[in-house]
Amino acid sequence: MITKDLLNKNRVLTMSNNRKCNYLVVDVGYSTGSGNNSASIIGINTQGKTKDILVLKEIPFNKTEDLVNEVYWTCKEFNIDIILADKQGFGIDFIDSFKSNIKSDDVNIRELSILKIDNYKAFINIKQDLENGYLRFLQTPEMAINSYQKSFLGFANMMKFHQETTKLIDEIENIELVANGTQNIIYKRKDETIGKSRFNCLLLYYAYPEIAIVDKNEEYYEKQYKVFKRMTQYEVIHGVFYKYMFKAVENDNIKTIFYYENKGKIEQFRNIIMENKFKELFNLYINRIISCKDSLSIFFNNGSSIEFKVGNDSSRGYRHHFAVVDTDINMDNFCNAIECKGVLFDIAKEKGLLKDNYNIEFVQM
Questions:
Q1: Does position 44 have pLDDT exceeding 70, yes or no?
Q2: Structure pTM?
């Protein structure tokens, strides 16, 4: 459960200087059948580490075209080019109508399925961001009145956003996670009279892009993209490895360590040292290579070495001149066990033995 105190602690924003959002999330829900329908939308600015919820509206509408029009002009007002919309219930009509009337190069809409959400994971991520101060909301209406010293265009609308934020806070605090009897975790409202559509918008954002719906053509191109990415990533690894091989050859007694997140990632480096080009370039300079099940070490005739280690808490025992760090490594392990062990580089720099200005490089392995 997320407490009201924690939520209110993150009510720090005003709208005076914030007129840019990256995403607009739309939850249309299900049609009432009476023509009196409504949709909830939230606009999120994701610059830097924070997720700032700035725009909040509940939009009543009779025709889908009216909702499309309201959503479109909200996007234009806040410079939003990506819409996230749930393709459930009445959301199907909204998405189809939006695609029919709005050019995708102007505002692009991404189809999501709230039914695919990992409830527990999304809820925990929301809670962690709240605890770290990364998920931030607009101030209370009372504080906002004091913050806006001067009237400005759209003051009434801005105040509505602050009021809608209060409703969003109530909806989040009203949610609890329960097991539904089939080992699945679902959301339950403690008070059924409190809505959930604003919370659904937040949920959709936190689950994106895992729950995005991809059509067949997009799926084909996505697979091609992933294949190309893997090939290119190997070329990057190849180049980085060669760079530190050259450093080892050209500098005596230099120690380089490649820190990887799990033992399976060492295989790509074993493959590289078996290539004919590698042998042609470096065999003359290598004293010996020790390749075991879980480790790989290269020792050079000039006293330099390159070793491959799993980046965990035990890494605090390895001093180095240069460290190449897998981006998947836990940052606590990096700060506590890896970063602080670059003492050999500092000593060499003081003696004028190295021209390099950095000794740690992050690479996706």
A1: yes
A2: 0.59
